[in-house]
Structures are given as structure tokens and as C-alpha cells.
Amino acid sequence: MSSSLLKSCYAERNPSTLYIKGVQLFFSFGLKEEGLSLMKRASDAGYKRAVYTHAMTQAIFWCDGQYFAGIPRESVQRIGKLVRSVKWGWGLWHSNEFRQNRALFISAYLPSFYSCQCATHVERQCLYLWHIDLTKDDNMCERCFWIKEIGMFLRDFEPISLIRDTRKW
């Protein structure tokens, strides 16, 4: 996309552009306040990818699950798969904080997911994120449902990294 088009879309507060820039600022440049603010604006405008990513970001970085209520359970799988499947080209490694939060999630929440008897459980040798999407059927409790979704986000999401630095839009 040309720089002038991105600048124009950003100036018009296009929700998808706000989302892209917000995710880039938050995850690629570590500018949390600015990035989260842009994701929230895109989310408030009803952009579904932003609603999902904002909720995941709030849960992972601030243990705040209140934004999950804004996502209908029946659409989470589709939106989540869409957000996690986007590969933004060059890709950056996640920040140390993201990796620390992933490790904390694995040690603190994954055991409760695997020990909860809320749904038919497929036995696995190890309690890792790699099999979380294949471990329980769709009849799981609300807590396990969101643990599973956060786990898949932590496993599959890649931060946005564009070739050019767009902080000057």
C-alpha cells in the first residue's frame, strides 16, 4: 500500500487502518499506550478484528477479561482464526514481555484447562499450547473456552512489521 493512501486512511480514522497501526505500535514498537488506544478506537467503531485483538491484548497484558463480553462466542473461532492467520511479511520476534506472559499463561492457566472436566477431553502427553485447539470438544465451560482462545492467540499471533516505519503517519 502506498504511504499516501495509508496516511489518508489514517487521517480519516478508517477503523482497519487504526487497527493495523495500533497493532504495529503495540507489538512491533512497544508503544503500548498509543497502540492500545488505536486498537480500542477501531474496536469501538465495530471493526471485528480490532474487537478480538483488543480483548486478547487486555487479557494477556493486564489480566482484564471484561472485553470478551463484546465478542459473541459463535463468532470467536472465525474472527480468531482470521486474526491469527495473517502473516505480515518480515515478522518480528515477540517482545520479552509477550514471551514472559506466554510462559506465565502456560504455567498458571494451562493446568486448569487440562484438569477441568467440563468437556470431552483428549489425552495428551504434555500440556503445551501446540495441541490446545484439539484437546477439548466445543462443549467446554466459559473459562476453558477463553483459556483455549488466549492459548491459540499466544501460539499463533505474529506481530505486524512493515518494511517502513509508519510511526510518522
Automatic annotation (TrEMBL):
Domain annotation At2g35280-like TPR: ranges: 3-57
InterPro entries, per database record: At1g67623-like, At2g35280_TPR_dom
Name by which UniProt lists this protein: At2g35280-like TPR domain-containing protein
Top-level taxonomy: Eukaryota, Viridiplantae, Streptophyta, Embryophyta, Tracheophyta
